[in-house]
Specification:
mainly alpha; 1 helix; elongated; isopeptide bond; protein tag activity; Ubiquitin-like_Pup; Prokaryotic ubiquitin-like protein Pup
């Protein structure tokens, strides 16, 4: 038998090892409640003083 040959075993024919399920993809979940509350807070700040809020984020002197 050459070293390049592969041997395939059929585990479904009553072998000693139980069949192994393929790995499942892990899904990422985002806690939208926290995001929504932060966005609501930003909205309320922008409604009351949007100009000051924007002024605080203007770059000064290359910062």
């Amino acid at each position: 038998m050459s070293s390049n040959e592969q041997i395939n075993k059929d585990h479904s024919a009553g072998g000693d090892e139980p069949p192994v399920d393929p790995p499942q993809a892990v899904s990422a979940q985002i806690n939208t409640e926290n995001v929504d509350s932060i966005l609501d807070e930003i909205d309320s700040v922008l409604e009351s003083n949007a100009e000051e809020f924007v002024r605080n984020f203007v770059q000064k002197g290359g910062q």
